[in-house]
């Protein structure tokens, strides 16, 4: 890969054609992501885009940067390793609510707490899309999937931004796939903010949750400056309806970076691999 800068959003799209269902919210997230990558103006070879497994986790394949389509629920562990080994890289992680909050829930907590400098995007459709429509941790308790949970799950859903705040994430935002310009801005801000940035993107699964098309009528911009203290953010999020978009919290915790990791050069890492 040659070193280049000042690329357009189109330059960050790969030749691989997405196989998402027509109308899936993830198309808009991809478009917002490539626009954000262009705006960040980081050379392509300096970006690592890491995901788990799920429809949404296919996204790195559709971008023209280094990518790793990993193991279900383990994207954050891989990403933290990449960032600690190569602090010079811009590390972005993406996946679904099932990938990140169910099988990957433990890793999510500790990524927030550890505060490694990377940006995590959850494309939240409140369902397992890839495996044909099971309830996920963000599914509301009364959603009736006739085959699997005919009477709903009856379980309180996880609220990802509240969870992220309680666990220590340093930047928290929410976007909606129907507003890709805002999503793009949130990604840029998340990447530029030091430490662990978490962005929940409400991204409708039109196949298994067609009613999510109505999210467009529910979302509303926060209209406030991001909360800067945890207390203020907790206070605001206590009355959040789950559809407020924008940067919800911007903290000032220093990013985790052990001195030993920051000193390793690419040559050091190569030496370790061959020895
Ligand atoms: C270890 C493991 N367990 C289960 C699966 C099956 N599996 C693949 S994707 C997925 C859930 C996907 O849901 P989500 O992360 O919300 O992404 P979406 O497809 O909705 O974008 C599951 C359970 C798997 N691939 N690996
Ligand atoms: S099943 Fe849902 S999440 Fe998966 S591609 Fe189709 S619309 Fe998107």
Textual characterization of the structure:
The structure is a single chain. This protein is of the alpha/beta class and 275 residues long. It has a single domain (20-274), classed as 3-Layer(aba) Sandwich (Rossmann fold), CATH 3.40.50. The chain is built from ten helices and eight strands. Strands 2-1-3-4-6-5-8-7 form an eight-stranded mixed beta sheet, with helices on both faces. α8 links the parallel β7 and β8. The protein starts with 25 loop residues before the first helix and ends with a helix. The model has no long low-confidence stretch (mean pLDDT 95). Iron/sulfur cluster is lined by residues 20-21, 24, 26, 55, 125, 129-130, 205-208.
Kindly list the characteristics that best describe this protein.
single chain, 275 residues, alpha/beta, Rossmann fold, 33% helix, 16% strand, binds thiamine diphosphate
């Amino acid at each position: 890969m040659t070193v280049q800068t000042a690329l357009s959003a189109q330059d960050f799209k790969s030749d691989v054609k997405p196989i998402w269902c027509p109308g899936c919210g993830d198309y808009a997230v991809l478009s917002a992501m490539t626009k954000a990558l262009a705006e960040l103006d980081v050379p392509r070879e300096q970006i690592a885009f890491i995901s788990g497994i799920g429809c949404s986790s296919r996204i790195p394949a559709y971008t023209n940067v280094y990518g790793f389509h990993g193991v279900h629920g383990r994207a954050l562990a891989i990403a933290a390793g990449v960032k600690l080994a190569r602090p010079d890289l811009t590390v972005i992680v993406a996946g679904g609510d099932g990938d990140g909050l169910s099988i990957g829930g433990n890793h999510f907590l500790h990524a927030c707490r550890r505060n490694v400098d990377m940006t995590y995007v959850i494309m939240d459709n409140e369902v397992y899309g890839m495996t044909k429509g099971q309830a996920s941790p963000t599914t509301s308790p009364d959603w009736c999937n006739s085959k699997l949970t005919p009477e709903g799950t009856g379980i309180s859903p996880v609220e990802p931004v509240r969870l992220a705040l309680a666990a220590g994430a340093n930047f928290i935002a929410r976007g909606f796939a129907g507003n890709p310009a805002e999503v793009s801005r949130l990604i840029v801000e998340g990447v530029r903010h030091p430490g662990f940035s978490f962005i929940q993107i409400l991204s409708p699964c039109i196949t298994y949750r067609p009613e999510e098309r109505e999210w467009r009528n529910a979302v509303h911009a926060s209209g406030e400056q991001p909360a800067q203290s945890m207390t203020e953010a907790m206070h605001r999020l206590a009355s959040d309806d789950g559809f407020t978009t924008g940067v919800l919290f911007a903290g000032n915790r220093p990013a985790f970076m052990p001195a030993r990791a920051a000193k390793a050069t690419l040559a050091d890492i190569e030496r370790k691999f061959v020895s």
